[in-house]
Amino acid sequence: MLNPHYTFIILTYNEETHLPRLLNSIYELNAAVCILDSGSTDHTMTIAATYNAQIKQHPFKNHPWQWHHALSTFDIKTPWVIGLDADQVISDELSTLLLNFRDEDYADVSGIYFNRKNYFKGRWLKYGGYYPFYLLKMFRYGTGYSDLSENMDHRFIVPGKTIIWKNAYLLEENLKENQISFWIDKHNRYSDLLAQEEIERRKKLRLQTIKASFWGTPDQRTARLKQMWWRMPLFIRPVIYFIYRYIFRLGILDGYAGFIFHFMQAFWFRLVVDIKIKELLDNEQTD
């Protein structure tokens, strides 16, 4: 008999490297697994079938819309769902909590944040603001939904009470990103989405779904920080952000791998986004 309390939903695209690792980490939980694939050409689908997962495919637009489709299309029988990316793994601490999870014990709760440990080139990024880092990953089916106001970042929104499992870790490591060329290509695509999103926000075509607050949930605090970011001047903000993360949030203590990650993610990526925003604005003025 499958776990009656929750179902896992996983997004995939050419994840033969990561999917066995994730599925093995949740195997003993004996929960239903639903996989939404966006056209894998490797062995991802064969691996998914081996684990008796419910599989569907859907063309990829962006992460928020892919999650929206997943939540709308699968036949979910449990009161809770857990949304995971293929490069994530359930830790032993989180597995223990999930093994003991009973819906009736959380009658007043609508969503649960997991604490993420992010790895890059084999190193846990403990500093630079990357730990602790709370992700809303578990929520009541039919209550939580994907935030479609975002074009790149994906998050779930849950009306009602949420709690944080601070010592239950979701381990995240994209092994494909060990090749910096993969990382650059991936984030170059992401920069297109983020630049277009910010242009649309400047025109009031996109509004935040989450109520921004420094004193609210982790996602509400993120929403407030994004409001501050959007008001900062282009080209200056990547410099400030990198210094903040690398110096003031002690990213320098993350070593060689940490320097590469914090520099590329905080400075290079944000600078590329700003350059593309400027190009889009200039093109509008010449049209």
Specify the number of helices. 8
Report the radius of gyration as a whole number of Å: 19 Å
Number of strands: 11
Mean pLDDT, to the nearest integer, reads: 97
Order of helices and strands: EHEHEHEEHEEEEEEHHHH
- Residue windows where pLDDT falls under 50 for at least 5 positions: none
Quaternary: single chain
SS content category = alpha/beta
Helical content stands at 40-55%
Distance between the termini: 62 Å
Q: Could you tell me the strand content as a percent range? A: 15-25%
Estimate the global geometry from the Cα principal axes.
globular
Task: Report the biggest beta sheet as strand number plus sense, adding barrel if it closes.
Answer: 9 strands, mixed
Please outline the helices and strands:
Elements: E1 6-12, H1 19-26, E2 32-37, H2 44-50, E3 54-57, H3 63-73, E4 80-85, E5 88-90, H4 92-99, E6 111-120, E7 123-124, E8 134-140, E9 145-146, E10 156-157, E11 162-173, H5 180-202, H6 218-231, H7 237-248, H8 255-286
Parallel strand pairs: 1-2, 1-4, 2-3, 6-11
Antiparallel strand pairs: 4-8, 5-11, 6-7, 6-8, 9-10
Helix pairs in contact: 5-8, 7-8
Report on the architecture of this protein.
40% of the residues lie in helices and 21% in strands. Strands 1, 2, 3, 4, 5, 6, 7, 8 and 11 form a nine-stranded mixed sheet that branches. It has a two-stranded antiparallel sheet with strand order 9-10. The mean pLDDT is 97. The radius of gyration is 19 Å and the shape is globular. By secondary structure, it is α/β, with parallel strands linked by helices. The longest helix is centred in the last third of the chain and has 32 residues, at 255-286.
